[in-house]
Specification:
Layout (H helix, E strand, L loop, with lengths): L10 H25 L1 E8 L7 H14 L4 E5 L7 H4 L9 E3 L4 E3 L1 E2 L5 E3 L16 H13 L6 E7 L7 H8 L4 E6 L3 H16 L3 E8 L3 E2 L6 E2 L6 H8 L4 E5 L3 H9 L3 H4 L4 H17 L2
Parallel strand pairs: 1-7, 1-8, 2-6, 2-7, 8-9, 9-12
Antiparallel strand pairs: 3-4, 5-6, 10-11
Helix pairs in contact: 1-4, 4-5
Length: 290
């Protein structure tokens, strides 16, 4: 065979083909993992500071407390708080199986399987300074390379907004169920409405909206006081033809227990907030398990 008989190699085409094969394999792994999970719930909000992670963590704990097999995935790559709210030490590291190229989520309270970027950074003050493609690569690994096993529920806590991680999760898990969290504040509802519309444009099943910080009881007289003008969540639910899953009143103890790593539905099971939250969880279960 002479040199002239050797066909030219299109390097760019070869590299692109390799990338496509790797992506196809990753998607195959993700689909295989997700097929073992009955219900996938994505907790999202358009705006930060509305208590989205608090809702996600307490949702996972509520489901696990009745004997269900639950996992929670912290998709907020640059601001992971799930481990902190569950009282799990960030010094714990996922067990890795190098031969299978798999890793195992951390076992949290009530045997909840937990995966978060918090387990992969050196210290609590170390920032994750990544651009979009790196964050999306991590999300794909969390879904495809983690051994979630057979679960009844996987709760995904997403960062605020409608880009990068949120878009990626909505594309990667077609049969997911979306729960939108907002406060009654008009600015928060403006962004929540965008998130609802994004989910509907992508033809995802929006379970409904949870209104967090929905007023509070006066510590002196017990009278209900609205922190913001009421009615915004009800209007959003009506406008987008989705359910109002629940209204969670504000209680100082909720934030305190989040910082201390003990979800409020466990510590203050008889509080108004816990009861309202449990009702929201029942509404979610009623929809998904009918």
């Amino acid at each position: 065979m002479t040199e002239d008989d050797v066909s030219d190699i299109n390097l760019k085409e070869t590299v692109e083909q390799g990338k496509k094969e790797a992506m196809d394999l990753r998607m195959e792994q993700i689909n295989k993992n997700m097929a073992k999970i009955k219900h996938k719930i994505v907790v999202i909000s358009g705006k930060g500071g509305v208590g989205k992670t608090t809702v996600a963590v307490n949702l996972a704990m509520s489901l696990a407390s009745v004997g269900l097999r639950v996992g929670i995935l912290d998709v907020d790559i640059t601001g992971p708080n799930v481990a902190k709210m569950l009282g799990i030490s960030p010094e714990l590291k996922p067990r890795v199986d190098p031969e299978a190229k798999k890793f195992y989520p951390i076992n949290g309270p009530l045997n909840i399987k937990v995966m978060s970027m918090a387990f992969l950074i050196m210290g609590q003050d170390d920032p994750v300074i990544w651009r979009g493609p790196m964050k999306m690569g991590a999300v794909r690994q969390f879904l495809g390379d983690a051994e979630w096993g057979d679960l009844d529920y996987l709760v995904c806590d997403l960062p605020p907004g409608t880009s990068d991680e949120t878009l990626d999760i909505l594309q990667l898990i077609p049969d997911e169920n979306v729960v939108v969290v907002s406060t009654p504040q008009e600015v928060a509802l403006m962004d929540a409405r965008k998130t609802i519309k994004m989910s509907q444009i992508m033809q995802r099943n929006v379970l409904g909206i949870i209104e967090n910080m929905s007023g509070f009881a006066c510590p002196h007289c017990g009278k209900h006081i609205d922190l913001y003008p009421p009615g915004g969540a009800e209007k959003a639910a009506k406008d987008f033809n989705i359910r109002l899953l629940g209204k969670i009143p504000f209680e100082v103890e909720i934030g305190i227990q989040g910082d201390q790593g003990l979800p409020f539905i466990i510590k203050y099971a008889d509080s108004k907030s816990a009861k309202a939250f449990k009702m929201a969880v029942k509404n979610i279960q009623k929809i998904l398990e009918k």
